[in-house]
Amino acid sequence: MQIGQAQAPGKIAEPVPLAEISPVKQALYQPLVEARLAELGEQSLPEPETTKIKDPDEPTPEDKQAFLRAVLGDKPYTKTYQLFNNGLDVTLMDRSTKETEKLYEALRQHSEAEKLSDDDWDMWKIRYCLASTLRKVRFKGATVKEFDTPTDLKGRALEIMEFSKTVYLTLVATNKIFEQQVQLMTERAHDSDFWVTGGKGLQ
Prior knowledge:
By secondary structure, the protein is of the alpha+beta class. It is built from 6 helices and 6 strands, in the order H-H-E-E-H-H-E-E-H-H-E-E.
C-alpha cells in the first residue's frame, strides 16, 4: 500500500453459533448472550442440554436402604453383585472394626516374615481385603462356593487365587467397588441430601 492510499476494509468474520463453541467458552459467553438478548427484549436462549454420566461406584437407592438397615440393626452390610449377565453372583460382607485390625496385624506379620517390598505389600493388602469380605461365589447352574469369616487370611487369599484368572480379577475389581461404596456411604453419614431419593428420605 502506497502512502496516502486508503486501506481496504477487512472482511467481517461470520458469527459462530454458540453450539459450536467449546463448553468452557460457552460457560463464559452464555451470560453475556443472555444479558444482550434481555436488553433487546428477546427470549433467552435455552440452557444447553447436559447428560449426567452415572458413576459405576455410586451407591444406588437400594444400596443406601440396605446399608441403613444394616447400620440401624448393628449388623454387617452385605451386597450381592450379579456379573457377566447373571452368569456369576458374588456376595461380599463389610468387615467389623476388629476384623479390620486383625487384617492389618496379619499383613504386618506376613510382611515381617517374608520381607515384602512396598509393591508386594500393596498386592497382599488387596488379597487380604478380598479374603476378609468374600462370602459367596455362585456360577450360574453350577458351583456355589461359600466362605465363612476367615481365621487365616493368607490361607483364604491363596484359596481364592485357585479360581481362574478372569474370575479372580473380577472378584478383586468387584471388592474394590464394594469397599469404595461402603467408605462413601460412611463418609456421607451427616449429609441429609445424600440419603434422600425422589424427594423422600430412605426408610
